[in-house]
Write a structure and sequence with these properties.
Length: about 325
């Protein structure tokens, strides 16, 4: 959970997650939907799917015990070299290097290593220094200490150099370039994608959800169906689901930003006419009441859309079937 997410954000999720899954067996036995539901809002959902897969592999192939070698650990889904090193250093005292964000910052400054740490050659140099510095004895204490040093003293914005135990040997402090290291990621243009998300409502006021493919954004989560660009929304509903549409309303487009791109979302509220054959919850499609607590894993922007749907304060224009096609 702490990968790419701050501690204060993680704590309530961690507490709920551990209360429901106190051990690896409980996690392995749970359905993926429940795992994703408890993860909903943290983002980077591949982490949850990989954690769930890893728990099942540990129970099926390792007798419910975490592997105790670096080679076996990195074979688990979602476990990289740094995570495996920290697990074995902290739990088994093995003298293995780690390279999380805090450690990268400490090493870049202490060793005066220039270049963006995400560049391959810079990362290799950091791994070399990390491996050279880890002690053969007290590896657990050292590993915890260097992570805490980066988190609390050698911080990103205002490093507390006067309080640092490495004050006298830090090259960046000696050169007066603490604020310049680590070097930032080179600026790049973030592409923009667009989509139309359909809030399809039956006569009972329920909203249609469908599970997204495992690959891609919000993989494995439940979401609103995507209406293809350029298509008429009512024709799309009829062709895709076989249902008749009573009316369609649109809401203002809003933006959700991912790591590598912006996603501009245009919500469509689509009311169905007549009786609609109910779709069983088993499978890839489900109906849910907007006001009820969602028992499925959905991404944060989708949850917000559904939660505010009954009052519809965002609806700005509408049309009846027979008007010009939707944009």
């Amino acid at each position: 959970m702490l990968q790419q997410t701050q501690v204060r954000t993680v704590i309530p999720y961690f507490e709920r997650f551990m209360d429901r899954f106190p051990d690896v067996g409980a996690l392995a036995a749970a359905p993926q939907d429940e795992v994703l539901r408890l993860w909903s809002g943290l983002g980077y959902y591949a982490r949850a799917r990989n954690l769930h897969k890893a728990a099942r592999i540990i129970c099926a192939e390792h007798g419910g015990e975490l592997p105790d070698t670096l080679e076996a650990l990195v074979e688990l889904p979602g476990v990289g070299r740094s995570s495996a090193g920290s697990i074995l250093a902290l739990s088994r005292g093995q003298a293995l290097p780690i390279l999380d964000g805090n450690v990268k910052r400490v090493l870049c400054r202490h060793e005066a290593i220039h270049g963006w740490p995400g560049r391959r050659e810079v990362e290799l140099k950091l791994w070399e220094r990390s491996a050279a510095l880890v002690p053969q004895r007290n590896a657990a204490a050292y590993t915890q200490a260097i992570m805490d040093l980066g988190a609390t003293v050698c911080t990103r914005g205002r490093p507390r150099c006067d309080d640092c135990p490495l004050h006298d040997t830090c090259e960046a402090r000696r050169l007066g370039i603490q604020s310049e290291l680590p070097e930032a990621r080179p600026k790049r243009n973030i592409p923009v994608r667009r989509t139309r998300l359909a809030l399809i409502e039956n006569r009972l006021g329920e909203i249609l959800l469908e599970r997204r493919p495992a690959a891609g954004i919000w993989g494995g989560l439940w979401s609103l169906p995507e209406c293809p660009a350029g298509s008429d929304a009512s024709d799309w509903v009829r062709q895709r689901f076989g249902w008749a549409v009573a009316d369609i309303e649109t809401a203002p487009e809003f933006r959700h930003t991912f790591t590598h791109f912006h996603l501009d979302i245009l919500p469509l509220r689509i009311r169905l006419s007549g009786e609609v054959s109910r779709v069983a919850d088993a499978g890839e499609i489900a109906w849910r009441q907007p006001g009820a607590e969602l028992d499925l894993g959905v991404a944060a922007p989708i949850r917000k859309l559904i939660e505010r749907h009954p009052d519809r304060p965002e609806i700005t224009k509408s049309r009846q079937i027979g008007d010009n096609p939707m944009p």
